[in-house]
Amino acid sequence: MTAFARRWQRCFARGVLVVCLQATVWASQPGDADRMASAAQARGPKADAGWQALRPVLLAAIHQGDVVRLQSINDFFNRRIVFREDPGVWGQLDYWASPFEMMGKGAGDCEDFAIAKYFSLRAAGVAANKLRLVYVRARLGGPGGPVQAHMVLAYYALPDADPLILDNLISELRPASRRPDLTPVFSFNAEGLWQATGALSAGDPLARLSRWRDALAKARAEGFSP
Q1: ∠ Cα 164 52 70 (to 5°)
Q2: Which of 156, 210, 222, 225 yields a CA-CA distance of 20 to 30 A from 24?
């Protein structure tokens, strides 16, 4: 295991647990298809069309292995959704959309992509403790390029594994050890938020917590499990 991969492990398991989120487990099923359908219709024609396209992907993914699920969900959103910053989509500097909000607009930023993939993978049966949304510092254009805050979704087959990274910048699933352009800062899911050991901040993790709680509440109302 490379030193870089171990850094991602610390962001998952050895970092400082900042706060626990007392998520409620509603049922054994990771999603409620009837509520999803109603919520998508309520978000408008684009969201409804998005749900009609996503539903067979989720149904197929339930019977597939995790890696195939990851690739199918990653491809679905990377191909269907246009990347746009929040001011152009929502008229706000920083807005975290639910999956059907993003599909209703047909556009979203890196947080919206990661959030939609997280909840869709939960609906496809991937365990919550294998998934982390991760704030990173992303170096664009290779060594010497500009660095900006970015969010990806990380999948850990085991707590000490080299995670696979789902990213709207690169459609190929790559292990963290093959993403030297990304430096993890903090990670979170419905269970908690972790500060990576020794990481320089891409933003205050606690300041992000209220947006994540709002996203959890909206996704839950749409029929997704945390």
Answers
A1: 10
A2: 156
Residue with tokens 């969010």: 151
**Are the C-beta atoms of residues 184 and 196 closer than 8 Å to each other?**
yes
User: Which domains does the chain show, CATH number per domain?
Assistant: 3-221 (3.10.620.30)
Annotate 171-210 with three-state secondary structure: CCCEEHHHCCCEEEEEEECCCEEEECCCCCCCCCHHHHHH
| C-alpha closest to that of 185 among 131, 137, 142 | 137
Q: Which helix (H) or strand (E) holds 87?
A: helix 86-90
**pLDDT tens track for 132-181:** 999 999 998 778 789 999 999 999 999 889 999 999 999 999 999 999 99
Q: CA-to-CA distance for 196 and 185, rounded, in angstroms?
A: 5
Given a cut of 70, the residues of the chain with pLDDT beneath it are 1-7, 9-30, 195-208
* pTM, 2 dp: 0.87
Which amino acid is located at 73 in the chain? I
